[in-house]
Amino acid sequence: MTDPVLFYSASAALACVLLLGALDKFRDLPGFAAAVSAYEILPAGIGVPFALLFALAEVAAGALLLTPAWQPAGAGLALLVLAMATAGLAFNLARGRRDMDCGCSGPMSRRPGARGTGLSWWLVARNVALAAWTAPVLAASAAGLSRGLLWTDAASVFGLAASAVALYFTANHLLASHLKLQAI
Asked: What Cα–Cα distance (Å) separates residue 45 from each residue in 34, 41, 50, 87, 105?
């Protein structure tokens, strides 16, 4: 059985990462669509609709993770989104294509005028770590919670989720800085 603090913290943290990632993609949907097309995996002309559906799937996963009755569905959709992104990264890395925009927004992106890092296996590892955040949600849905959530647990849930999100974004920025220094 899963402790509800871990369950709700993992759900909230992953929801924040997905929703903020989707927000970045919607801010520059043409740039994200261009990054998707540059992966050269999808047929020509599919990049724009796929980019829109991908960002909408991130929003849906994040929203579902914040809705108690739908958290397992949100975790499943988050796993699907992360698996698709990770497969695209790994496919292009295996083809030796590193010097391109990852499409993930933030410090790791490489867009005109931006100083991103391109693709790396670290991005694959990061996505695998994000996928691991779904484990408590999926475990709780399979086995149930060990106890009810008490009102005093709210501070723990908030603190754990905020710490996890801060750690994620800090690691992203540190990795981006490290990779930029290696490129010089």
From this structure: 11, 11, 9, 20, 22
Q: Residue 75: what pLDDT?
A: 93
Residues, the chain: 184
> Does residue 27 sit in helix, strand or coil?
helix
Give the model's pLDDT for residue 105. 65
Give the integer Cα–Cα distance in Å for 91 and 53: 20
The mean per-residue pLDDT over the stretch 153-164 comes to 84
Alpha-carbon distance of 111 to 72, in angstroms, equals 34
What does each C-alpha distance from 118 to 43, 51, 100, 143, 154 come to in angstroms?
22, 18, 5, 40, 39
The mean pLDDT of the chain is 84
The pTM (predicted TM-score) of the whole model is 0.81
Q: How many helices (H) and strands (E) does the chain have?
A: 7, 0
Residue 157 and residue 86: Cα distance in Å, rounded? 28
Give 148: exposed, middle or buried? Use CB within 10 Å, 0-12, 13-18, 19+: exposed
Residue 48: count of CB within 10 angstroms of its CB: 15
Cα–Cα nearest to 127, from 89, 155, 153: 89
